Amino acid sequence: MQEPTERPPTRAVLMDAALAVFTEQTYGGAAVAEVAKRAGMSVGTLYRYFPSKEALGNAVFQRWKGMLVERIAGSGDEPARVMFARMWRLVLDFADEAPDAFAFLEFQQHEGYLDAESVALSERVSAAGEEFVARGQRTGEIRAGDPAMLLALVYGALVGLIKARRGGLKLGAAELEASERAAWALLAAEN
Amino acid sequence: MQEPTERPPTRAVLMDAALAVFTEQTYGGAAVAEVAKRAGMSVGTLYRYFPSKEALGNAVFQRWKGMLVERIAGSGDEPARVMFARMWRLVLDFADEAPDAFAFLEFQQHEGYLDAESVALSERVSAAGEEFVARGQRTGEIRAGDPAMLLALVYGALVGLIKARRGGLKLGAAELEASERAAWALLAAEN
Amino acid sequence: MQEPTERPPTRAVLMDAALAVFTEQTYGGAAVAEVAKRAGMSVGTLYRYFPSKEALGNAVFQRWKGMLVERIAGSGDEPARVMFARMWRLVLDFADEAPDAFAFLEFQQHEGYLDAESVALSERVSAAGEEFVARGQRTGEIRAGDPAMLLALVYGALVGLIKARRGGLKLGAAELEASERAAWALLAAEN
Amino acid sequence: MQEPTERPPTRAVLMDAALAVFTEQTYGGAAVAEVAKRAGMSVGTLYRYFPSKEALGNAVFQRWKGMLVERIAGSGDEPARVMFARMWRLVLDFADEAPDAFAFLEFQQHEGYLDAESVALSERVSAAGEEFVARGQRTGEIRAGDPAMLLALVYGALVGLIKARRGGLKLGAAELEASERAAWALLAAEN
DNA sequence: AATGAATGAGCATTCATTCAT
DNA sequence: GATGAATGAATGCTCATTCAT
Fold first, then answer.
1. What one-character-per-residue DSSP string does C97-130 give?
2. What's the confidence (pLDDT) of residue D2?
3. How far is A130 from A125, CA to CA, in rounded Å?
4. Residue B119 three-state SS
5. Is there a contact between D121 and D66 (Cβ–Cβ < 8 Å)?
6. CB distance B24–A175 less than 8 Å?
7. Chain A, 141-160: which have a CB under 8 Å from a chain B CB?
8. Which SS3 state, helix, strand or coil, does residue C180 take?
9. Contact between B26 and A25 using a beta-carbon 8 Å cutoff
10. CATH H-level superfamily of D60-187
11. How far does D11 lie from chain C, in Å, by closest CA?
12. pLDDT tens digits along A95-147
């Protein structure tokens, strides 16, 4: 009888390798063979798990976009201020734990190869974000204005912060706190 | 009688075509032949003006990064609040007038091919931004905190806004005003 | 039942094709695609076996230069006269059996692409030849003079002979004998 | 009225440049543009003087092959021994004065592009050589055997010598003398 | 299931040749 | 006559994808 085993799930190994290579070289600039090599497998095996480079790209995109959305999904009825603080931290944690994933998702352009499902997922994420803003507006905590616009601003700020850190900017816990407060000021209803 | 001339400056035509193709397909995903075709020229001609794809990429990058920095360069001794409003508008205008250029510069990852000069130019831009923040902090208009961090946040917010607009978000003049006010709140010293 | 196998050793097939094409068109004038076609393979396959045209050129050069040197290597303590006769015949045989190889090696100029190893091999061959001449001089069989010079003369004569045969000159066994005697006269100590 | 002038004859300048480039890089490996640049002219000008790369190659070949044949042409009724000594020296001088030309003519393979005229010229040269050998045989000075074979041997020896010198072999006047004596031994009738 | 050799279209780049100025 | 910009086919090389083992 065989042990339940603990083999590294091939698909996941491939996706990790793909993420690394895509992040370094861009989806367009990455070679499938390089992904396979990085995963310690043959190209043939890669193609047993993913029918094409495009499919691989989408799988990676969806996996991490999904991971990200899962993190920040839980809502509840907390005040927007509290929820925002939590989300800010969660995304920052995500970017710390999976910096390549965040870079791949947010610092690159994916237009050329994303399939319908990937696009739908992205839209679901935005919708959730806008929903959060709208709710905060309804409770008077968040300033008036197109929720999509406000979301674009704060999320942009967050992405900018993470990009700067990836570029070498060192920030202590206090400063991270400060960044969150500043970002909230962007959102907060004027006194 | 004819005006002294109006020749299409070949180099510029090529760089425009390159910008369009790079923006659509990413530097890594773009084919040099496609750039030449889009410019209405042969590949050979492209290579008479640029020694390599890399050189072309850097030329495009530097041209537009330079353009952008030129726009927002003028400083003066105005209050930070005024200066910020002007800059916000200027970058927005730039992105309206040259949307591909902005997308190419700010929505993509360039790490793989940028040369020293391109990198230096990018750094000069950041330095100018940080200088602006630092000055505002000295006058008490801008909140305390690492200037690089604050710059990353606001510039990220601006990029996020422009990305959202490129993605289809429609905003009127009033809302653009509002976005600027919100962004300033991020920067402004807490009263 | 089948013999253990007889697969065409891909590398060797490629090198044979390369030799043929290089001999016909010169290394510089040969197209890699033509080599692949002649070998009945795709370009991609060629590049799986040789990292570059240069590497292919060097591999072909070294294979045949090595073959040639192997042929004429064995020395022994025979009189120079005997040894010379044998070598003359061996090189002639080599040129008969592998006329393209000899032409490639000796009728062309390789300066541009030969790597260190190829150059070293060539030098080893010359050194062996000079050693033969020097030994013959020590025994008084071969005339005085710079061994390198004498080697250049006889080997040149041999190459000239083979080139003429390749150009259409027909020689019977007796005449080949005569050529050897004449060449030896060049070398022989004056009575 | 115009001065007889002394402009550098464009055609000759081009042919000199071509010789240099062909010698360095082989006809097949040489770029027409490089020839033009080396000649200090534009490609357009080159093409005004030579209708194609092939034509240029043949012109260069014929010019120098012609030069060489001219040198060694004069016959007279001298003894073969004397004539041989003179020719040996003349070719050596030619190779000293125009080393690139000799290398181009004799160290390379030209099969691919030589036209009928070039081939005819080469044949005329051989014929003259064979005639010299035949005459020497008639006077009993040169050993018996196919004149083409004997010519191939001595001329090969001479080419070998010059190639070795080009490769770095240094020879004094005495050794050059010795080389000539050795080469004559190859030809000389066995007493 | 896994491998990696094989394929050939595609890519960046070069080159012989033409032609408007 | 001279120039060199322009052309596009050809070159060396890479890459996504397939398939026999």
1. H-HHHHHHHHSS--TTT--HHHHHHHHHHHHHHH
2. 47
3. 9
4. helix
5. yes
6. no
7. 143-146, 148-160
8. helix
9. no
10. Tetracycline Repressor, domain 2 (1.10.357.10)
11. 25
12. 999 999 999 999 999 988 999 999 999 999 999 999 999 999 999 999 999 99
pTM: 0.89
Cα(A189)–Cα(B96) distance, rounded to whole angstroms? 28
Q: Whose structure tokens read 């390599």? A: B52
CB of residue B13 closer than 7 A to nucleic acid strand F?
A: no
Q: How far apart are CA B24 and CA B27, in angstroms?
A: 9
Tokens linked to C134: 């020097």
Contacting chains of B (3 CB pairs or more, <8 Å) are A
User: For chain D, how many helices (H) and strands (E)?
Assistant: 9, 0
Q: How far apart are CA C109 and CA C103, in angstroms?
A: 11
Determine the Cα–Cα distance for residues B147 and B135; give it in Å rounded to an integer: 10
Q: Dump pLDDT digits (tens) for A31-82.
A: 999 999 999 999 999 999 999 999 999 999 999 999 998 888 766 788 999 9
CATH of C54-187, one of 1.10.357.10, 3.90.226.10, 3.30.870.10, 2.60.40.3500: 1.10.357.10
Residue-wise pLDDT tens digits, B126-178: 999 999 999 999 999 999 999 999 999 999 999 999 999 999 999 999 999 99
Q: Cβ distance B47 to B30 under 8 Å?
A: no
The strand pairing partners of B142, in sequence order, are: B188
Q: Which of B107, B112, B190 sits opposite A29 (nearest CB)?
A: B112
Interface test with D, best of C130, C186, C190 (most D CBs within 10 A): C186
Which tens digits make up the pLDDT trace of D121-153?
999 999 989 999 999 999 999 999 999 999 999
The mean pLDDT value of chain D amounts to 92
Residue spans of the domains in chain B: they are 54-187
Which positions of chain B have pLDDT values less than 50? Answer: 1-6
Nearest CB partner across the interface for C169, out of D30, D111, D152: D152
Quote the tokens at residue C74: 């064995």
Q: Which nucleotides of E are covered by protein (CB under 7 A)?
A: 1-20
Which of D103, D107, D150 lies at the smallest CB-CB distance from C182? D150
| Protein CA C45 to sugar C1' E7 (Å) | 8
Please indicate if any CB of chain A lies within 8 Å of the CB of B74: no
